[in-house]
Amino acid sequence: MSHDTKTPLGKLGERLTKSVTQIEADELQEDSARMGCTRMCDLVDRQEATVSGTVKAVTLRPRVNVPALVVDLYDGSRTINLVWLGRRTISGIEPGTYVRANGRVTWIKGTPTIFNPAYEIVPLRAH
Q1: Terminus-to-terminus CA distance in the chain, angstroms?
Q2: Per-residue pLDDT of the chain (127 residues; tens, 9 = 90+)
Q3: Does 2 reside within a domain?
């Protein structure tokens, strides 16, 4: 009898063989799909997209005359940079926060980036 990965026993076996990092990545991708978001690994340059994921890092990068708040957002498939020009902080956005963002994707040095995205903090990821 083969074990279907959807059965409790199949899920247990899958969990025992996958790393914690891979399990978290799979869960993030499932959450993103459930919210109707585009997987970050599928983003195309100049595409308008809605993405969601966990904030991995928040940095303030100085630009000429204008600060830029940069958030690394991870959805389990890859990371995207969300950049808010003229912002130094955004209340509630910190590492570990789950965020959904929308905007036009552009590729900067090989990394998908959205400048000044519309966003919402998702307090609890529904399962």
Answers
A1: 29
A2: 444 456 776 666 666 667 878 888 888 888 888 888 999 999 999 999 999 999 999 999 876 788 899 999 999 999 999 999 999 999 999 999 999 999 999 999 999 999 999 999 998 655 4
A3: no
Phi, psi angles (nearest 5°) of residue 30: -65, -45
pTM of the shown model: 0.79
Nearest to 99 by CA among 56, 68, 67, 48: 56
Range of the domain at 21: 8-121
Instruction: Tell how far CA 65 is from the center of its chain.
Output: 29
List the one residue out of 80, 118, 85, 114 whose CA is nearest residue 101: 118
Q: How many domains does the chain have?
A: 1
Residue 18 tokens read as 């996958």
The domain spanning residue 36 has which CATH number?
2.40.50.140
